Amino acid sequence: MALETSPEHPAPVRQISQAIGAWVERLGAVWVEGQVTQVSRRGGLNTVFLTLRDKLADVSVSVTCPRGVVDSLPTPLVEGASVVVHAKPSFYPTRGTLSLQVREIRLVGEGELLARLERRRQLLAAEGLFSDVHKRRLPFLPRTVGLVTAQNSAAERDVLDNARRRWPGVRFEVRYAAMQGVHAAREVMEALAALDRDTDVDVVVIARGGGSVEDLLPFSDESLVRAVHAATTPVVSAIGHEPDSPLLDLVADLRASTPTDAAKRVVPDVAEEAQRVLTARERGRRAVRQLLDRERRTLEALRSRPSLADPRAGLAERAHEVDALRDRARRSFGHRVDRGEVDLGHQLARVRALSPLATLRRGYAVISDADGRARSSVADLEPGATLHVRVADGRIGAEVTGVERVALVGETDPTDPQEDPDE
Fold it and tell me: Are 361 and 392 in contact (CB under 8 A)?
């Protein structure tokens, strides 16, 4: 029933929201077809938030779905998948928004296909087929480039023309194969195997133009992916356009966005390389000139040194130094000799002063008996005994004619009578 309103009697917002909610509620659960454009999983919530867009019109609606419904799908739900959902429309009066509460999801058409490919990608990635560890570097200038493509296709012309334009001497070994259909994967594998056995082929390019997901499906075939992984020759994938991403792109050693891009990747540009050679040659010349200039300046600096400008000047100066050192040594030696001579004189005078000969020179004599024993006392001497007298300059033979004892200082005269102590 339509609401009766007027400028004088308008309906409040809450009444309109409640009316819309009531009308939406009468619609009940419906089946809705669309394309998933956004998938949001929030941690801690059992609800997955989706955005479902119409395939033809720019119309989208928010969708809420229990996590268990999404997880129960045979393949993961990804953005871009086409689905049919059984949902009940709900209107939230407080926010004025419409949402679909999903009860069941079914993958259909391209969405189901994309989901299967995503599942296959995850399984092959878990085996390590897409790991960067297995990627091989392309040769800088391959002897022969292998090309797998459809006969008389635009992809073939793009690769051949652009590669020869960049490097006119490039050689191609082309193997034709179906690029779509049920036999495409098998024929591509056969062509790849033939080129991989050719020892002259250094790199293989698999090229095809753009197309739908179904057209590019052979290049996500598991057997083809494993064949490319097992190949010993580096493989370049040039399938479709930039948005297209078959599994062949992930396993190939290099992914080219287009066949034209593949031609630019496999061979260098002759003009660019010639310019690089000229640049390197000029850089080498500058380096050699700088080295020669540096060495020339070093040589000039060495030649300007006084020791090299006049070597004899240094020798004369050293000769003067040698003469000065020699004179100094002579003076020092002379001083040492003089001091030694003076010291020797002093020591000699001291020795002479302590020598018995000096005593003899002062008038003293040394008396010895006939046996040569020195005599310092008149004891045991008898008149007529023979004595020898040693004076400063010789010896004198003498005979004792008399003996007289002389008392020493502090001694009593032996000839004086001794008093009896008892008297």
Answer: yes
Contact (Cβ atoms closer than 8 angstroms) between residue 107 and residue 82: yes
pLDDT tens-digit map of 97-119: 888 999 988 877 665 667 677 77
Q: For the chain, state the CA radius of gyration.
A: 64
Contact 148, 175 (CB under 8 A): yes
Q: Calculate what percentage of the chain has a pLDDT beyond 70.
A: 93
Nearest-angstrom CA–CA distance, 381 and 369:
9
Give the side-chain half-sphere CA count within 13 A for 258: 10
Residue 33 CB-density burial (10 A; 0-12 exposed, 13-18 middle, 19+ buried): middle
C-beta of residue 79 within 8 angstroms of C-beta of residue 114: no
Q: Which residue has the tokens 């005269």?
A: 413
Full-model pTM: 0.50
Element (H, E) at 157: helix 154-166
C-alpha–C-alpha distance, residues 290 and 268, integer Å: 32
Amino acid letter for position 114: L
